[in-house]
Design the sequence.
């Protein structure tokens, strides 16, 4: 072999190779990503030269071949791309690559461990794992001669003639002893799948293509089916439920970006505080933690983002403040909002199905981003107790089938529903959901600018049922974000609207207002309600419990609660806020209202029992003692409807219940 030239690589930093080997990248494994990326680039350049008429004859099918030789401890990456002449090797390898590497390292060596990646200078990454790197190449140019370049990790190189006959380049790495893991077939396949799976050129190893090749996000949405998107998601995230919806991103202004984002079916094991999107640059995987690029409220999104305009050679803190990154985040938020709006208008059942998972994040986005809030404010829905007459008649009917079709939109849309007539209830109301605007409009005659809501359907069931029976509509706002953040946000946004929890204060429409018929007992000069109040005050003996007597409206008083515990809205919210800021569990407040329903038969019987008691010389009469025990029992039942007892409370309740039952049996 004739040696054409020996010399030193033109660099000025004497310790550049130790920096490359140990400090530049945290993960040495990216060397294979870089070499494959350069090989793909060489193949693309040859194709461009052929289209320009600079290549004679037909091009062979593009391919990249990886081979390992365990005996000689070598790994080779070969391509049939554009190749290089001796002059190009000296220019691009001896001068450009290493001088660029030197500048790059001088600029970033203090924060080398923070680097996400840097493309275009990938060749020198081979020295992280190799004690010797060789290049064997033949240019496509007519009359070009093959050349061989080698370097042992020092500034010295050797350029010689080669016997290569095929156009293209082979880079051979003689691995260091501590890097022999890269000779293992499983490791090679894993690295290709991780970093280069979607490169458009087949990457062959052991006589088979080991990369998927098809980058779905680079294709036109018009050419893709629903099953294409679902198969891609299953490939990226195996053993997961199918996603709820997805968006195909494609823009070239003011930045270049492609991608497919999915909103997954949420599960308890999904950490919604971390990003799950895979970041690519020109189809080369960079990382799967790009929280800085995705709006915080869309962290659950999964999928792929591919953009050469996202800076990859800066720290994450700098990435957060990058103007292009912020614009990309806004773009993604807008596309999600657009999709939700189209789904809202076109397929009610599917929108509601998705809302159960995405609703909290959309609300969170409204809190965090004013632009996003304006986009989605008209499509925020809430579960409601409202039932239209038509809904009641069709309550037992089967759910209509949803047919799916492919649209020319970047989303997979479903068949639009038939438009509702102006006189019929919306499909949302039929499904038990409503918008806040529709709620306020529907109830303006009964309680204008007032919203009744429930935060716990189980513990507040008694209250909700009372409202429903009187025809008052209740919204279910029972998520963590609702109770702690979103309701105050809505009150700020709707400054003239008052929000009241169902157990805060009973609306006057729930109470009998005519008290003129109350009879005053001439012996005590007190009304029956006053007597009942005093009876409960003595029986409960808790000064901080405010006893109120009211008659609840009902066609059947037996179906109403005998007593209810009420927590004033402002006081309760203050306690909740204090507990939240101090990261403490909010205990049940000692100060609360006990509303006694004087129209309930049980309360009337207790009053009669107390009035008929005869005080004996030894103290309380048996009837009077039973009346007090029943008062305490009624109070316990009201508390159970509001909160659960702790161990001591439950023990005391069971004991009192047994005593009450025993006393009642004695009366028989």
Sequence:
């Amino acid at each position: 072999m004739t040696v054409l030239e020996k010399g030193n690589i033109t660099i000025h930093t004497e310790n550049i190779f130790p920096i490359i080997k140990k400090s530049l990248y945290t993960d040495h494994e990216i060397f294979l990503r870089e070499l494959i990326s350069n090989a793909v680039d060489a193949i693309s350049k040859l194709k461009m030269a052929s289209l320009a008429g600079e290549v004679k004859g037909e091009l062979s099918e593009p391919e990249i071949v990886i081979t390992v030789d365990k005996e000689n401890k070598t790994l080779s990456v070969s391509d049939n791309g554009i190749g290089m002449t001796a002059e190009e090797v000296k220019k691009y390898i001896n001068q450009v690559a290493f001088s660029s590497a030197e500048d790059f390292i001088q600029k970033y060596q203090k924060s080398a461990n923070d680097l996400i990646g840097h493309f275009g200078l990938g060749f020198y990454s081979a020295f992280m794992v190799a004690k010797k790197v060789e290049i064997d190449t033949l240019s496509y140019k007519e009359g070009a001669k093959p050349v061989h370049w080698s370097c042992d990790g020092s500034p010295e190189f050797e350029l010689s003639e080669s016997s290569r006959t095929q156009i293209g380049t082979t880079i051979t790495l003689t691995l260091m002893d501590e890097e022999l893991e890269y000779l293992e077939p499983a490791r090679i396949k894993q690295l290709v799948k991780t970093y280069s799976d979607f490169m458009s050129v087949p990457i062959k190893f052991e006589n088979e293509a080991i990369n998927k090749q098809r980058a779905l996000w680079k294709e036109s949405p018009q050419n893709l089916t629903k099953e294409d998107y679902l198969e891609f998601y299953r490939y990226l995230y195996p053993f997961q439920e199918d996603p709820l919806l997805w968006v195909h991103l494609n823009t070239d202004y003011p930045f270049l970006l492609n991608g497919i984002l999915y909103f997954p079916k949420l599960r308890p094991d999904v950490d919604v505080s971390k990003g799950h999107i895979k970041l690519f640059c020109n189809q080369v995987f960079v990382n799967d933690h790009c929280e800085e690029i995705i709006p915080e409220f869309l962290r659950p999104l999964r999928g792929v983002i591919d953009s050469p305009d996202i800076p990859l050679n800066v720290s994450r803190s700098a990435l957060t403040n990058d103007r292009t990154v912020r614009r990309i985040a806004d773009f993604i938020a807008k596309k999600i909002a657009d999709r939700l709006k189209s789904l809202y208008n076109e397929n009610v059942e599917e929108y509601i199905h998705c809302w159960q998972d995405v609703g909290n994040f959309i609300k969170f986005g409204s809190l965090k981003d004013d632009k996003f809030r304006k986009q989605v404010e008209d499509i925020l829905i809430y579960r409601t107790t409202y039932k239209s007459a038509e809904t009641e008649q069709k309550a037992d009917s089967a759910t209509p089938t949803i047919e799916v079709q492919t649209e020319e939109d970047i989303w997979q849309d479903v068949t639009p529903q038939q438009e509702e007539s102006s006189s019929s209830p919306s499909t949302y109301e039929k499904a038990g959901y409503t918008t806040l605007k529709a709620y306020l409009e529907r109830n303006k005659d009964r309680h204008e600018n007032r919203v009744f809501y429930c935060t716990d359907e189980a513990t507040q069931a008694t209250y909700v049922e009372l409202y429903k029976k009187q025809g008052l509509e209740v919204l279910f706002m029972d998520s963590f974000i609702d109770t702690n953040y979103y309701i105050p946000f809505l009150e700020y946004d709707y400054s003239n609207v008052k929000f009241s929890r169902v157990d805060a204060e009973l609306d006057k429409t729930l109470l009998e207002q005519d008290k003129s018929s109350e009879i005053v007992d001439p012996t005590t000069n007190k009304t029956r309600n006053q007597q009942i109040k005093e009876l409960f005050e003595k029986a409960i003996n808790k000064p901080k419990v405010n006893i109120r007597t009211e008659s609840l409206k009902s066609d059947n008083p037996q179906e109403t609660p005998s007593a209810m515990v009420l927590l004033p809205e402002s006081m309760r919210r203050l306690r909740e806020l204090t507990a939240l800021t101090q990261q403490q569990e909010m205990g049940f407040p000692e100060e609360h209202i006990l509303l006694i329903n004087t129209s309930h038969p049980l309360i009337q019987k207790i009053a009669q029992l107390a009035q008929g008691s005869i005080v004996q010389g030894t103290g309380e009469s048996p009837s009077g003692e039973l009346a007090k025990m029943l008062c305490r029992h009624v109070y316990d039942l009201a508390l159970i409807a509001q909160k659960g007892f702790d161990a001591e409370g439950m023990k005391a309740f069971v004991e009192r219940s047994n005593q009450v039952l025993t006393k009642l049996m004695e009366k028989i």
Notes: The CA atoms of residues 266 and 357 lie 6 Å apart. Residues 107-120, 398-425 have pLDDT under 50 and may be disordered. Residues 323-346 form the longest helix (24 residues).
